[in-house]
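Input structure tokens:
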């Protein structure tokens, strides 16, 4: 399995995607796929790959928008698919930026790109736990966020997305088990922005979820920097995966580490007794190369080839150093 953090589409990425499409002779279109090209071999080799789409899609006929309320081109979903991702978590603090129509547009765009999702819903049933099969193993993927940036879901549409509530998550995980799930993976949009340190919500919620016996893996995002990996009650918790793709300004407003992230891989095993276990997660550091089209660079692959690294060698080394300080014990050898 492979996991990645926030896909956060800022204005410069939209502009670049438009240039990419125009260079291919396409008008009124966007092509984000070149940004993901360098990580395709790593992501596509996984039997199940999940990333986090933080920005909702703009409803049809409505203008695009970025920070503070996002509504981005639907073509980002085809790029996610072309990278090899099978699913996205979609519950985030920006999930309701464009209202219920934005939720609908996001789910539809992902499905049109053959990417499944958890965390947004067009109907009450869609937010409920669902079980899917990967190589004969029944899996459920759940997604939750700490807030919607002060926006309120309609009183009669509270099912549109999912807020972090320990009791609710435990109920959903238990429901998934009753539906036949052998594995429950929980995506959590949580943590303090710009901080590698865990906050109290992350610590207490992770402890409660992993004590239940119904949650097998927790993967996190939102801090926009990488955060630690820990084993809690025998369950691996990847607290923060960083921004796999974004353009947060690193001119003093955001740290350079906001462009650092990783692809996190692990192997799932089922023994002869039916017991499920995950191997120790492996971290494959990435860095967003803003100067050459916002390309997600596979750092170790790039540094192993001086020609590929080129003018980015120093920046790649610096990024690797920052990620190593947080996740050094898990970085691929």
């Amino acid at each position: 399995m492979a996991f990645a953090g926030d896909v956060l589409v800022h204005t410069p990425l939209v502009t670049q995607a438009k240039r990419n499409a125009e260079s291919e002779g396409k008008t009124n279109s966007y092509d984000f796929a070149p940004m993901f090209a360098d990580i395709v071999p790593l992501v596509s080799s996984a039997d199940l790959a999940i990333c986090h789409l933080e920005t909702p899609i703009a409803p049809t006929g409505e203008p695009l928008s970025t920070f503070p309320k996002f509504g981005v081109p639907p073509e980002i979903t085809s790029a996610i698919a072309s990278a090899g991702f099978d699913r996205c978590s979609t519950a985030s603090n920006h999930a309701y930026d464009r209202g219920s129509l934005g939720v609908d547009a996001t789910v539809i765009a992902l499905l049109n790109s053959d990417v499944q999702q958890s965390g947004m819903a067009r109907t009450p049933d869609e937010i409920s736990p669902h079980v899917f099969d990967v190589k004969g193993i029944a899996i459920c993927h759940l997604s939750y966020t700490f807030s919607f940036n002060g926006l309120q879901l309609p009183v009669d549409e509270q099912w549109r997305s999912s807020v972090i509530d320990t009791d609710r998550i435990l109920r959903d995980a238990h429901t998934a088990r009753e539906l036949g799930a052998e594995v429950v993976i929980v995506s959590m949009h949580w943590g303090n922005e710009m901080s590698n340190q865990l906050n109290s919500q992350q610590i207490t919620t992770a402890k409660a979820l992993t004590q239940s016996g119904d949650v097998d893996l927790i993967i996190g995002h939102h801090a926009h920097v990488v955060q630690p990996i820990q084993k809690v009650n025998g369950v691996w918790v990847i607290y923060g995966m960083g921004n796999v793709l974004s353009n947060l300004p690193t001119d003093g407003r955001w740290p350079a580490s906001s462009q650092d992230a990783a692809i996190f891989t692990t192997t799932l095993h089922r023994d002869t007794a039916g017991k499920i276990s995950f191997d120790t997660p492996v971290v494959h550091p990435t860095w967003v190369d803003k100067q050459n089209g916002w390309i997600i660079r596979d750092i170790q692959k790039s540094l192993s080839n001086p020609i590929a690294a080129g003018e980015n060698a120093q920046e790649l080394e610096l990024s690797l150093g920052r990620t190593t300080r947080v996740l050094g014990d898990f970085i691929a050898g």
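The first strand starts at residue 2 and ends at 7. The chain has a mean pLDDT of 97.
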